[in-house]
Structures are given as structure tokens and as C-alpha cells.
Write a structure and sequence with these properties.
The chain is mostly helical. The chain is built from 25 helices and 3 strands.
């Protein structure tokens, strides 16, 4: 809470509003619906103007003396700094808008308006029409801004997204039809224009950017080190982060070997047997829905963490436009949102796949893996985290700040927590798959740092993920490519290790061994940079 004498009381909303000027889609998804239907101006001239104001705001927040702030507001001051620093880093150092078409195509998604019942259909349809009507200008801006030589993975993934967007726009029309035929006609007219713009942009990428695409996607050591600070408040040298990832990989491999010996098997054979036990293609969503109910009751029965009420989680197929990006994902209610609904997306088999590729996908989403994924995405992972995040005591800065390492670290930690608490009667399958997922996250960290700072190729990263994380080739390739445009997928392991460090340090001394009390305290901070976590728990 703030007061009239709080030095940040005026500056805080001013910074957040400025931050949202470039992140209208994020603002709407968080529940700030005054941003509904808005697309940002991502032209070079507009972002230069944004940067000038951001630097002025940065100077003002840095001039606020910490002595005038209580401990809670000192954290908020740092979060406001990082909001501005992080966006300036993207605009001026990594130059994301100049190098990655996905940053433009991603603005056109309509899920916020379709998935959650926060306003009348008519109001949400108007937002959809505004988004669709703005797509042509958005993509013309992209063509004017994107460099002549783009990283190849960025172009190929952008083409996949572009291919899926027209059917996503059709979902907008189907949603509008729930209101009236007239609303559906409005969306139809706008989506025809948007679809033509997306197809034209895809053709432009194919003819003007794909032929000149390069393998030069790496950030380099200096920018990667800077990334650790602006995203996670960490000054730990990159080499130390890599060493921790390798140590965790070795620890998980040793434990998997131990379990395999107990089963008179090998790790590969254990994982292969579990992979054989998968749902039928038409049962993926139904199976995930049942598992969401089971894991919620498991959390309650074992008193692992408070489940805020009310809670509603839907399980649905991943929207077509995102199926090349996600295996499964959580669309949680934002901190400013009224409905509490979460949507757990599960990616189905693509009907266009040949039988071998389809079987490989189902083996990836075998029963044990799907349950571990449900723990990560729903209970007690991301959905429960979102419910805590919505609690009204959070400041504006903490409602907006999202630490990837804290959020993904918490969900990844929950996988291990569930096994420790006796998931499925401490079954071998539960532990093997939990370790399997931990190996994947360890390899993500190693691949991210390797590809962006040590010259590792996508092919080498694929081989690392295939051999060390025991992934099917189709999934290993997807994971390696993801690391090119999302270097922050190191955050799963980084965040989990930070939470485990904090647990070993504070669980007994500060929370008398109560897992629920420790976890509730952890989630009470919102989603702070993982580098600040120890200081918060220590009361600094």
C-alpha cells in the first residue's frame, strides 16, 4: 500500500503507464482492460521517443533516496528501475524489434478477449475488431523496421506463427457469433483484411528475408550477463550459472541411474517404457482435465500451500497459432483481472503429421509426463501462483513485474516438491519423469548459455537435449530452436535452485519446518527477481 507521503506514489503509476505503451497486449492480459484493442506503435521513431521518456523516468526513480522508503517500497523502487532498464535493453542492446518478426506477429493474438469472460461479448468483440483492423499497419511497420539479415530460426518460426494466425482470427469470428450475427460480420470483415496482411507479410518474409537469413542469433557474453541483471537482478558471472546447471545435470543423471539400477534397467529403457503409456490422440485434453483435479486434491491433502478461493481452471486445446511454440501452457488470470479462471492449454496431435511424428508427440505427452506437466502448469504450479499473485496487498510495481526465474522456478520446483510429498504413492514413474523434466531444464540452461556465449550450434544443442535429456528427436529440435529466440529458458533451473537454496536456509529457522508457511511466504512477494529472493526472506 502507498501513502500520500510516499515518494513513489506519483512516479510508480507514471512508469507503469509508460511501460504499457509498448506492451498493450501484456497490459490487457494482466487485466488492465483500458488497453483492450490497442496495438503499440513499434516504429523506430516511436520507440526512440519512448526511450527518451524512459531515461527521464529512470533518472527520477534513481533520485528517490532509499532512506525515505520502507523495506517493501525499496523493493518496488528496484522493480520500477528494472522495468525501464529491461525494456531499454531490448530496444537498444538486443534490438529485438529490429531482429525478430515474432515480436510483431505476437501482437495480433486474440486469446485475452476470447478465453476469459471478463466483459460482455459486445465489448470484447469491439476489441477484437480494433486489433484485426490494426494488423496491416503493424506489419507494414515490421517490414520497414526489420533488418535485411535476420536469424534463420526467427524467420522460420515467424512463418509458422503466420500460418496459424488466420485460423486464430476465425476463432475471433466464432466468438463474436455468440453475441449476434451482426458482430460476427464485423469481425469477418476485419479478419479478412488482417488475414490478407498476415499472408502478405509471410510472403515478404519468404522472399525478402528467408534467402538472406543467417545463423547469427547469439547475444554474446556481455549482453547475456546484462540479461541476468535486467531480468533477474543477478550479478552472478555467467560461468558460475553454467557450472550450477552442469552440477544439477550430473546430480539428476546420477539419481536416474540409481533408480534404473533398482529397476534392473537403464535410464533410456525406463523412459521408453513410460513413453509407451500415453493417451490416445482424442483423449489428451480429457486426461489432462482429470489430472488437474487429482493434483489439486493432492495439494490440499498434503497441506503443501494455501489454495486461494475461488478457483476455476479450464483445460483446452492450444490455439492453432501457438501450437508450434507450446507443448502445454497456462494462461492464468492477471493480477488486475476480475474472473479467476485459468486456461490450461494442451497441444494436440496435428492431423497433418505422419504416423511416426504423431506417435513421437504422444510419447512426449505420456501419462506420467502429462501429470508432471499438470503439476507444473496448474497445481501447485502456475495457476496457484497466479491466484496468490492477485492478492490485493501487492503494490502496483509487484503486480506488473514478472520474474521468469521466479515464476518458472516455482513451477519447476513444484514438480520435485510433489515427488517429495509422495505423488502417486512415491511411484517410480513419478520420480523418473520428474527427473526427466529436470534433465530437460538443466539442458535448457546449458544450451542457452552455450548457444549465446560459447558458440554452440543448434545441431549441438539438439544433440545435447536428445542424449542428456532423453528427448525424442522432434522435441529436442523444438527445444534447441526455442533457445535461439528465448535465451531466458535457463530460468527454470536457475529459479528452482534459488528456491531450494532458500528452503534449506529458512524452512526450519524461520518457518518451523512448515512447508505451507514457507511456500505462502514465498508467494507473498509476487514474482520478484530471483537475485532478490534471499534478501527478502532474510528481511533485508
Amino acid at each position: 500500500m502507498t501513502s500520500a507521503t510516499d515518494p513513489l506514489s506519483t512516479l510508480e503509476p507514471e512508469i507503469v503507464d509508460h511501460y504499457f505503451e509498448l506492451r498493450c497486449t501484456t497490459a490487457a492480459a494482466l487485466g488492465r482492460h483500458e488497453y483492450d484493442g490497442r496495438l503499440p506503435d513499434l516504429s523506430t521513431a516511436a520507440t526512440r521517443r519512448w526511450s527518451l521518456v524512459a531515461r527521464e523516468l529512470l533518472g527520477r526513480v534513481e533520485s528517490v533516496p532509499t532512506a525515505r522508503l520502507d523495506r517493501s517500497r525499496q523493493l518496488d523502487r528496484e522493480l520500477l528501475r528494472l522495468l525501464l532498464e529491461g525494456t531499454l535493453f531490448e530496444l537498444e542492446e538486443t534490438r529485438d524489434l529490429d531482429r525478430n518478426p515474432m515480436n510483431f506477429l505476437g501482437q495480433a493474438e486474440l486469446t485475452t478477449y476470447i478465453a476469459r469472460d471478463y466483459a460482455p461479448v459486445e465489448d470484447r468483440t469491439r476489441a477484437i475488431v480494433r486489433i484485426l483492423a490494426g494488423v496491416p499497419d503493424l506489419l507494414r511497420t515490421a517490414e520497414a523496421r526489420l533488418e535485411a539479415r535476420l536469424p534463420r530460426p526467427f524467420v522460420t518460426l515467424s512463418l509458422q506463427i503466420a500460418e496459424g494466425l488466420p485460423s486464430h482470427f476465425e476463432e475471433g469470428e466464432a466468438f463474436a457469433a455468440k453475441g449476434s450475427p451482426a458482430l460476427a460480420r464485423e469481425v469477418r470483415k476485419a479478419r479478412d483484411v488482417a488475414t490478407e496482411a498476415v499472408r502478405s507479410f509471410a510472403q515478404w518474409l519468404t522472399s525478402h528475408r528467408l534467402p538472406t537469413a543467417t545463423d547469427d542469433f547469439a547475444l554474446g557474453p556481455e549482453k547475456f550477463q546484462r540479461l541476468l541483471w535486467v531480468r533477474e537482478g543477478l550479478k552472478t558471472p555467467v560461468q558460475e550459472v553454467m557450472a550450477r546447471g552442469r552440477d544439477d545435470l550430473e546430480r539428476n543423471q546420477q539419481r536416474l541411474q540409481e533408480v534404473a539400477r533398482q529397476q534392473r534397467s537403464t535410464p533410456g529403457e525406463l523412459i521408453a517404457r513410460l513413453s509407451d503409456e500415453h493417451p490416445a490422440p482424442d483423449q489428451l485434453v480429457a486426461t489432462a482435465r482429470r489430472m488437474a483435479e487429482e493434483t489439486r486434491e493432492f495439494v490440499r491433502a498434503n497441506d503443501l500451500v494455501t489454495i486461494p478461493e475461488p478457483e476455476i481452471c479450464h483445460v483446452r486445446e492450444t490455439p492453432p497459432w501457438a501450437r508450434g511454440l507450446w507443448t502445454a501452457a497456462m494462461n492464468g488470470p492477471g493480477p488486475f483481472e476480475k474472473p479467476v479462471d485459468g486456461i490450461y492449454w494442451v497441444t494436440p496431435v496435428d492431423p497433418a503429421w505422419d504416423p511416426g511424428r504423431a506417435e513421437g508427440w504422444l510419447r512426449t505427452l505420456n501419462h506420467a509426463m502429462l501429470k508432471n506437466t499438470t503439476i507444473h502448469e496448474v497445481w501447485p504450479g502456475h495457476y496457484l501462483q497466479a491466484l496468490h499473485f492477485r492478492r490485493p496487498r501487492q503494490s502496483l510495481a509487484r503486480q506488473v513485474w514478472m520474474s521468469y526465474s521466479f515464476m518458472e522456478g516455482w513451477a519447476h520446483y513444484c514438480e520435485q516438491l510433489a515427488v517429495e510429498a509422495g505423488l502417486d504413492g512415491r511411484s517410480t514413474a513419478a520420480e523418473v519423469i520428474q527427473i526427466h523434466d529436470a534433465l530437460l531444464r538443466d539442458c535448457r540452461l546449458i544450451a542457452s548459455i552455450g548457444m549465446h556465449t560459447q558458440g554452440m550450434s543448434v545441431a549441438q544443442a539438439t544433440e545435447l537435449l536428445r542424449t542428456q535429456a532423453h528427448l525424442e528427436l522432434v522435441n529436442a529440435e523444438r527445444e534447441a530452436i526455442r533457445g535461439t529466440y528465448n535465451p531466458e529458458y535457463f530460468c527454470y533451473t536457475l529459479g528452482k535452485l534459488a528456491i531450494l537454496d532458500a528452503r534449506s536456509k529458512y524452512l526450519e529457522s524461520s518457518y518451523r519446518g512448515s512447508r505451507r508457511a514457507f511456500h505462502d511466504a514465498l508467494l507473498s512477494y509476487g514474482s520478484p527477481p530471483i537475485g532478490f529472493l534471499d534478501g527478502l526472506l532474510a528481511g533485508r
